[in-house]
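Review the following:
>
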Amino acid sequence: MTIYQVAEAAGVSISTVSLALNHPDRVSPKTRDKIIRVAGELGYRSGATVAERARRRSGRIAVVAPFSSYETYRTRLVGVLETFAPHHIEVVVHDTPPSTESASPMLEALPVRGDVDGLLIMGVPLGEESADRLRRWGPPTVLVDSANDEFTNVSFDNEQAGYLLAAHLVARGHRRLAYLHEPYQPSAYTSAGELRLQGVARALRESDSAEPDFEDLELAGNDVASARAYAAEFARRTERPTAVIAHHDLLAAGFLAGLRTAGLEAPDEVAVAGFDDGPLAEAFGLTTIRQPLAESGRHAAELLRSLIDKPRRTPARTLLVPRLIVRETT
């Protein structure tokens, strides 16, 4: 099966087929969907069957994640690279928008390209159509930070993470809590932030306060500048939460810097906490939740290696446990 036959069957040019498979963001969703469906049905990919894929391995795996949006996925990538490097397997990286913004066109194209032996999808939810394509035409796939019953996955207990932070703050006497996060678009996908909020809500329900108070604080962007700018606005409020939980440590650091510029100190005037526990958290003395990020990347990579060797294995589930790290900011 050649690209010419795919183009003819889809009623488009060869260059449009090439764009749809290699640069899917540059093709309209309707045209892209038609080309990918036709290519999959015609078998336009190397290793169209498990047996063929085993004989014609490319020595390459693909990793899809919102790398430019979140430091956590870059850290996980380190674990992936460490796992595959000794086996001389090339790791091809595809950056994608975060799930809070939109779906990833690349996820639609990868199942039929056939140029990788395996696929790691991190932090991007699988829609019904994408999951179906992967099941029918895709290489062995492992999900990280998203779940689907048909695929092996590695996830983090975000609900428990939110609970641990909020319970710690409640134990410190806080009853007015807030959650600081980047802007997001509502969807059917339950994001990490929503799961953490569920944990916060559970901790507040279990508190001895008759009327615990909680605020949702949405930033203009997902960066230090946005968090720092919001801190100035927060400091001017006469009535404000006594503790703020940021969606990740970078936002918490920006918020802390903004508070200090405004003349407020943590934890005396407002407690601040975050998630992830990277070097930034230690530098700022930030209370946070530790995620085993590099370890999760290594574990997901090992699972993918096993699936490439034995593609018919039953999907495995790994749930990583959060750990509360208490420092000066609370």
User: Anything to note?
Assistant: The chain has a mean pLDDT of 88. The CA atoms of residues 66 and 98 lie 5 Å apart. The two ends are 62 Å apart (CA to CA). The chain has 13 helices and twelve strands.
